[in-house]
């Protein structure tokens, strides 16, 4: 009998030949460290920016969601969490999704209509890209953070569409760069366009109150639809969208990734509520991770704009996949886990080490990383 799945093996073999084959590796986390095959590593790969994922979670009486939110899975604690998010984001309303991916893909697929146009940054997260592809709207991908390109597209195409939506991450997860939100909002005002942003890597980390880049750049009132995640700085699981009542009500009635998914578990809701308590009551965690980020960039002589200098994502772009894997292994050999990020996660020729910082990292741990990076040991070919 013909092997009906041989084409999968051929593609996997091709990935293996180019050092792009990936596998799941079981690890046992413990704070900012983990155990892998009996060895202990300092974890510079997690998105647990405030160190909340390892904190105790309040006990709950129920384990599972049991149903989609619209059937009977939306409980009093879900309502309380949505209200807390709306308060943090200073919006009229908010709702919760089972994951950040579901929130991004669902919102972008649902809101733009068949007579609309979506402008999407070329380095947007896969969830936003998939949402664009699922949408009935026309779509144009613009070069990363290129305001002039956005303006040119709007000048040429705005009159041909009923509505235009500009979709962007606020912090780009593989680059640590920040979207030019002030300029994008200015263009939205000029051309009657609507911005949709994903604050996944900014919630809890950026802004005086920790609501994200929109707060940090002073454009919260100009960005009506803001998506976020509960699984990074907040230390739980799930996603959310905050915005006007009418937009949230429309998503509740039309967004397939919300309607046809089981609601977030009560334990995840409780963990998210505890995370929001920490964001509001422990601003020193935010200050700590921002200080570590600035220190790492200064030590590696990475020059970035002032706002970007406090982003806890620091890429070291090496280009070649083999070199990047060797560099990650060199760091792992001394107990430092820094993930090697390869295509297709990043564009060809831009393989990199991606350093993620946490408020739980100690100065000594960061010093070890800086020492080996500055000395260049990870980038030397092995004998």
From TrEMBL:
Could you say which enzyme class this protein belongs to? transferase
Entry superkingdom: Bacteria
* Molecular function as annotated in GO: 8-amino-7-oxononanoate synthase activity; pyridoxal phosphate binding
Q: Which residues form a coiled coil?
A: none
Q: Which GO terms describe its biological process?
A: biotin biosynthetic process
Q: Which CDD domains match?
A: KBL_like
Pathway annotation from the record:
Cofactor biosynthesis; biotin biosynthesis
What EC numbers are recorded for this enzyme? Answer: 2.3.1.47
Enzymatic reactions: 6-carboxyhexanoyl-[ACP] + L-alanine + H(+) = (8S)-8-amino-7-oxononanoate + holo-[ACP] + CO2
Looking up Gene3D superfamilies in the UniProt record yields: Aspartate Aminotransferase, domain 1, Type I PLP-dependent aspartate aminotransferase-like (Major domain)
Tell me the InterPro entries matching this sequence: Aminotrans_II_pyridoxalP_BS, Aminotransferase_I/II_large, AON_synthase_class-II, PyrdxlP-dep_Trfase, PyrdxlP-dep_Trfase_major, PyrdxlP-dep_Trfase_small
Q: Which cofactor does it need?
A: pyridoxal 5'-phosphate
Q: Which SUPFAM superfamilies match?
A: PLP-dependent transferases
Q: Keywords assigned by UniProt?
A: Acyltransferase, Biotin biosynthesis, Pyridoxal phosphate, Transferase
Where would I find the Aminotransferase class I/classII large domain in this sequence? 40-373
Q: Which Pfam families match?
A: Aminotran_1_2
Please report which protein family the annotation says this sequence is part of: Belongs to the class-II pyridoxal-phosphate-dependent aminotransferase family. BioF subfamily.
Assembly, in brief, is: Homodimer.
Question: What is the protein named?
Answer: 8-amino-7-oxononanoate synthase
What is the organism of origin for this protein? Answer: Rubripirellula tenax
Q: What is the lineage of its organism?
A: Bacteria, Pseudomonadati, Planctomycetota, Planctomycetia, Pirellulales
């Amino acid at each position: 009998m013909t092997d009906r799945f041989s084409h999968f093996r051929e593609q996997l073999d091709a990935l293996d030949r180019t050092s792009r084959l990936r596998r799941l590796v079981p690890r046992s986390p413990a704070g900012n460290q983990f155990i892998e095959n009996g060895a202990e590593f300092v974890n510079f790969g997690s998105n647990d920016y405030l160190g909340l994922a390892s904190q105790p979670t309040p006990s709950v009486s129920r384990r599972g969601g049991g149903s989609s939110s619209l059937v009977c899975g939306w409980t009093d604690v879900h309502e309380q969490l949505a209200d807390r998010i709306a308060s943090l984001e200073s919006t009229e309303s908010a709702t919760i999704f089972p994951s950040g991916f579901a929130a991004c893909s669902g919102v972008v697929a649902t809101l733009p209509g068949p007579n609309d146009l979506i402008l999407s940054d070329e380095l947007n997260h896969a969830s936003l890209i998939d949402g664009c592809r699922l949408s009935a709207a026309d779509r144009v991908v613009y070069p990363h953070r290129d305001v002039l390109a956005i303006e040119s597209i709007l000048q040429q195409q705005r009159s041909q569409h009923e509505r235009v939506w500009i979709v962007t991450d606020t912090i780009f997860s593989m680059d640590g760069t920040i979207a030019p939100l002030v300029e994008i909002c200015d263009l939205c005002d000029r051309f009657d366009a609507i911005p949709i942003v994903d604050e996944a890597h900014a919630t809890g980390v950026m802004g005086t109150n920790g609501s994200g880049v929109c707060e940090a750049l002073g454009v919260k009132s100009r960005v009506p639809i803001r998506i976020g995640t509960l699984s990074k700085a907040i230390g739980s699981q799930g996603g959310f969208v905050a915005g006007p009542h009418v937009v949230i009500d429309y998503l509740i009635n039309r967004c397939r990734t919300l309607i046809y998914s089981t609601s977030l578990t009560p334990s995840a809701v409780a963990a998210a509520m505890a995370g929001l308590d920490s964001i509001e009551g422990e601003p020193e965690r935010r200050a700590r991770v921002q200080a570590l980020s600035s220190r790492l960039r200064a030590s590696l002589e990475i020059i970035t704009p002032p706002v970007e200098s406090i982003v806890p994502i620091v890429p070291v772009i090496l280009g070649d996949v083999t070199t990047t894997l060797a560099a990650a292994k060199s760091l792992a050999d001394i107990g430092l886990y820094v993930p090697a990020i390869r295509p297709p996660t990043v564009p060809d020729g831009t393989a990199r080490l991606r350093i993620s910082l946490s408020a739980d990292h100690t100065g000594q741990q960061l010093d070890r990383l800086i020492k080996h990076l500055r000395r260049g040991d990870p980038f030397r070919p092995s004998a």
